[in-house]
Amino acid sequence: MKTNLLSFAVLFLLAHFISCQRSIKEDPGGGTGGGGNTPPQTITTSISGRVIDQDKIPLSGVQAEAGGRTGVSDINGNFTVTNFSTKSDLAFVKVTLPGYFTGIRTISPSANATNNVEIILIKKLVIGNFASATGGLVAIPSGGNINFPANSLINAATNTAYNGNVQLSAFFINPTAADFRTILPGDLRGLNSAGKVVGLQSFGMMAVELNGASGEKLQLAPGKQASITFPIPGSLNGQSPSTIPLWYLDETTGLWKEEGSAQKQGSNYVGSVAHFSFWNCDSPYPTVNFSATLQDQQNRILSGARVVLKTSTGIGAYGMADADGKVQGLIPANEPLKMIVTTRCGSDSTNIGPFSKDANLGVVHVSASEPAVAVNFSGTVSNCTGGAVTNGVVNILLEGINYRANVSNGTFTYTAYRCDNSPVTAQLLAFDLGAGKQSNPTNINVTSGTTNAGQITACNTLTNYISFSLNSTSYLMTAPADSVWSEVAFTMQTQIKGYNADSTNLNSFVLGTLADRPITTVIDMLNIRTNNISYAMANGARVNLTLTEFGTVGQFIAGNFTGTIRDSTNHRDVSINCNFRVRRR
User: Fold this and answer.
1) For 17-121+286-365, which CATH class?
2) What confidence tens digit (pLDDT) does each residue in 348-386 have?
3) What is the spatial distance between Cα 398 and Cα 322, in angstroms, rounded to a whole number?
4) Does the fold of domain 126-283 match that of domain 17-121+286-365?
5) 203-231 residues labelled b (16+ CB within 10 A) or e (exposed)
């Protein structure tokens, strides 16, 4: 069965077919596939999301940007971008992390609400090399190939001809894959050659990036084209047209844009493209607007419920309910539809439609629900001398999710929620932030109700941390309670990063140096944000950095430095002293 998803930030589902059918209202003003007759307005909205890799591992430190505002993912891969302006029919968030292809999720947003998304980032691996002077045919392990003509590339930053070795990173995105709806960039909403918004049925996508020998980004030169081959998944081959439009993802709008076409050759589509980003082979189809508000059988709002709607041939839409349980977006017009809603605790499905005009189901009650079984954690945290820890946190790892409990006067409490009361093991790790110490892991069995962890002693040396002081104020970021890590970028620039999110502000630390081994060198870049104040190196300032450890991936990079940086808000110099030891990824 083909899997094909369409636009929407949020969608819909219901458990009771009869009651839902009775509540359906069709809007007589819509049904044109472009959002009806109501022109889009400027609204304020927010996006909250979760970013994971292809192995379903949460990615921390991912930069998220929407409408000119930013956010950063935490240890669970969660991020929020708040209160940005956008059009009422379309918003998109762009997420970036070194070593991965850019992720983009396009939605139909709810005004003055938090819209939910989930994104899988594709690891960016070099899968082939060729000389720009000769060009070459590069096979893509995940499917397809790209053929480059000789002398066809330029430096994307300078628009000058590039002559040297080319490294190609590419990945074929299979539209029949189970995780297609969370890995696809944008959504399946496109702007055709006539300027009309249409739904898209994908027969294959490709992510492509070109880099030169020094890491510079490359593009095809004006007037040059490369041939790109998309394999057609076997289950889609029988319904694939002989000629299909090509679409590229416009990263400034979040929409796919029609440009050219591809011809069917056996079980492949082959077309020519004049630039590289994400490319897509899609057949367009008409749409109507849809909206509903999801609640469970106890009238509780189902924020973040995942909703899939599809036709008998697999065309459809995918989205998540916003913080108010609302789902909305474009769905296939004039098609009977199967709706599937999934929460952390279950799923339902039923049949609705077809809809020839815009439709609003109103409040829809479903039998699937979000976690509602409470586990109340409590305990005490002591320091090396047996005294109460006054500045600390406890990280609670429960069913794959990290929770952060603050320690006040040596005690902590935290309530987490589960789907049921089956026995599981929770792991607790306590941190004395003032002394820079941590505990051994404490494993306790939990079901529901109150769970007392007893006394936990935080007296071990930290293993994964960034510790720094600005004048006389000290700060500590440590994993897993915070997101801290190191990485070596393509150009061999070493970066040390840390993010410490709380309920009022985001503290961040980003250091960069060209060093790639234990050495005393200089800091090339330093940006720190604490308590809503930003700090950076003053123009011409020189701060020496000593790297004492430089491990491979999975090991540690450690170092220290002392110097002066500039408060960019009050324009004053402050002294900084820093020690770090963070795991490399």
Assistant:
1) mainly beta
2) 888 888 999 999 989 989 888 889 999 999 999 999 999
3) 24
4) no
5) bbbbbbbbbbeeebebbbbeebbbebbbb
